[in-house]
Amino acid sequence: MRKIAMAASLSVFIAFLIAATLVIHPFGYPPSQMDDYIIENAQSETGANNVVTAVVFDYRGFDTLGEATILFTAVTGVVMLFRRRKKE
Amino acid sequence: MSKIVRTMSSILSLFIFVYGSYIIMHGHLTPGGGFQGGAVFASGVALLIVAFGSQNLHKSLKEHHLSILESGGALIFIGLAFGGIATVFFYNFLVGSPIFGHIPPPGPNPGDIWTAGVIPFMNLAVGLKVIAGLSAILLVMALATTITEVEE
Q: Domain range spanning residue B81?
């Protein structure tokens, strides 16, 4: 019974994956003005040759601040969890 | 670990540290940046922990020093973000100024490290943060595992 349920759910999942692969948009479609603007103007506006870094640290700097906060929270949690107790 | 492993890892970790610093400092020219370079650097720390043991490394690398370094990186990052508050938060206020303000010619070119305004400083701050954070995680976890082994 369990194996049949697992097989059914797995087949539904794989069918969903295949359907999603078939109906996915082609690369770069739909075209957006944001991509063209960033590719055209990133070098002259930020001075960075690496457009990805220009987006990550300049256009979307607030997002990077959130990433840094996630890392900070993770480190805080791990250090709290694994801190060494004093000998009793 | 044996003497061969310790010697080789102490030589190799230097090259790993140099490569991680290179990825951090060239984040605005080549693929990579603060997060990736910091992860490379922390892998060198992991190599040292495996080779020398966390107890030996803990004599010179304390986790509260690492947490001070991480908080300092975060403060530098937020301070640089507040530097452009006159226009908007995270404004790149150093482009066009003498410090890192040179603008490269458009199109593909090898680039110059003296460009990109505030981005190299932000890469440095995030790299410092990631180095300290991941090293602290590795060190604390390794210390915890060795202590439980001793107690059993």
A: 3-151
Q: How many angstroms away from the CA of A38 is the closest CA of chain B? A: 13
**Tens of pLDDT, residues B40-74:** 999 998 998 888 887 788 788 887 888 888 888 88
- A58 close to B (CB below 8 A): yes
A47: left (phi over 0), alpha (psi -120 to 50) or beta: left
**How many helices and strands (H and E) does chain A possess?**
4, 0
Q: Taking CB atoms and an 8 Å limit, are A49 and B123 in contact across chains?
A: no
Quote ipTM for the complex.
0.77
Residue B120 has φ and ψ, to the nearest 5°, of -60, -35
Chain B CB contacts of A56 under 8 Å are 33
CB proximity A54 to B under 8 Å = yes
Domain count along chain B:
1
